Amino acid sequence: MHTFVFANRPSIVSTSTVVGKREAEGAYGGYFHHVMQDDTFGQETFEKTERQMLSFVIEDALSHAPKGHSEIDAIFSGDLMNQIISSCFAAREFPVAFSGLYGACSTMALSLALGAMSVDGGYYRNVLCCTCSHFSSVERQFRYPLELGTMRTPTAQWTVTGAGAAVIGRGKGYPAITRATLGRVVDYGIVDANNMGAAMAPAARDTLLTFLRESGERAFHYDCIITGDLGRLGSQIFLDLMREKGIDIRDNHMDCGATVFQIEKDNFQGGSGAGCSASVFNSYVVKKLQNKEWKRVLFMATGALLSTVSSFQGESIPAVAHLVEVEA
Amino acid sequence: MHTFVFANRPSIVSTSTVVGKREAEGAYGGYFHHVMQDDTFGQETFEKTERQMLSFVIEDALSHAPKGHSEIDAIFSGDLMNQIISSCFAAREFPVAFSGLYGACSTMALSLALGAMSVDGGYYRNVLCCTCSHFSSVERQFRYPLELGTMRTPTAQWTVTGAGAAVIGRGKGYPAITRATLGRVVDYGIVDANNMGAAMAPAARDTLLTFLRESGERAFHYDCIITGDLGRLGSQIFLDLMREKGIDIRDNHMDCGATVFQIEKDNFQGGSGAGCSASVFNSYVVKKLQNKEWKRVLFMATGALLSTVSSFQGESIPAVAHLVEVEA
Q1: Which secondary structure element, helix H or strand E, spans residue B286, and what is its range?
Q2: Tens digit of pLDDT for each residue in A131-142?
Q3: CB B2 within 8 A of CB A73
Q4: pTM of the shown model
Q5: Is A129 on the interface with B (CB under 8 A)?
Q6: Which of A205, B94, B257, B271 could form an S-S bond across to B160 if both were Cys, CB 3.0 to 4.6 Å?
């Protein structure tokens, strides 16, 4: 069994998000907690900016946490930077246990699943789950120096400049994480590092089918099934792959990547990056649950598990999707 | 509280290790399960070798697992490669849930702590915890191309070519993981990436003091307090830092890095890398516990949380140490 049940209803008691200007102009602009005035956040390098955004949402989520939840035992965090330096350096500022994770763009769901496990099992009282990404730090690490002005391919996505954090604790009246499925690594042989939606869609299907089979739930029972950053093409592939299995989720599926930016030629397939689903989940999705507009959702962030080295060595792109079920 | 108790005694039911020739010539040569005949393991690149070593120990640990424990639900793994590609690509071969971790050289203890949590809490039945490193892949990623033949500084360590895996399940008669402490990120301002022992020693002290304070245990009650890869100088600093706090563990401390290689001028401070403590723990340490030569040990792997980018940008080196208590 890859799915586990949280009997003690670990809850999302506080969240915070910060994004860049371009993200704030998109569909969720009214939901993000904070918008940066420029893409540096007062830092000298984009890597330091990314880390600063992460520290900022950690501190902000803690400062807005309800009484009894503002003291955390641990941080569960990861990011896309080599050796997850954004998380490691942000964690340095907080004197709590640190569990470093790597799930590429699936990190928000992975951190929620493991963080909720630690609270549900009584190992920790309150924990903080978070991740981030920055367009410029990711772009120059994985693709080309920005200064080159390299053309983007039609299947390319645009890394979201964003960070999201959630405080998980036991409490009533908050959205609760009720189940989780950690995904398998799935590889469909896609080798184009500019077409990650296609690489990730089979992983998303695998995890969703695993969850539905192991839990006995039906897909249409959910107000929304939220994927991370499949993008527009990847979402289409995912929906087609699900329909092949007789499950039609066209009416209750939303992809954070496909919807986060205004549709303009620049963004092609939409957003990506660990900060994409993290910023949308911790603002828009949590708000909808808090308002009881949604009663039950599945949040399934997807990650492409490549590196520049693996791509240079001719490898295909393995992918993973992690899922959490959240109830209002 | 950063320390948690495992009431259901998740146990180490099976382990496997594989190392290179140089490692096999050292103090633990008689304990490692497998030794590679050359440093490629039949692969075209060192990155693929590292991954192959990891797949190998996963499969080997599973094939030797006792009845009822050979089917695992999840793999908890990480490594030093950018985007932990060794773990991601190795996990692709096993159709089980994958939790990607990053703790640099502390990964073995992190994976044991989280894996044991998932089994203790009843979320998973059996899980596999593992990590690896390869001298040549690490060296060229973090330091210089091997072909340059760059001189090493006197404080430099030598990355261990090794992989280790442990199957964790509930069962009687095996060494059991009874408590764990996830460490805080500690930064003492060391900026020399060739002196990681000095960067990690304060983190080791912090985690050990936290464990002793929170558990109420005394250091001398343990047959051995095993650190990961502080190296010879780092171990000396760690012992001094502990004595400053009135705790003398000179007689029951062992560092995997300081002892793994034969003392020769090449190795300077000893071994390092995620595979260092992983290969020593899963062979020598577990054997001593199985034989009841040791009754209780603390295994505390340490990690330096730097990247080449953070060093180039003038940052100091944050470090972390994660601890598990294991009883025979």
Answers
A1: helix B286-290
A2: 999 999 998 899
A3: yes
A4: 0.97
A5: no
A6: B271
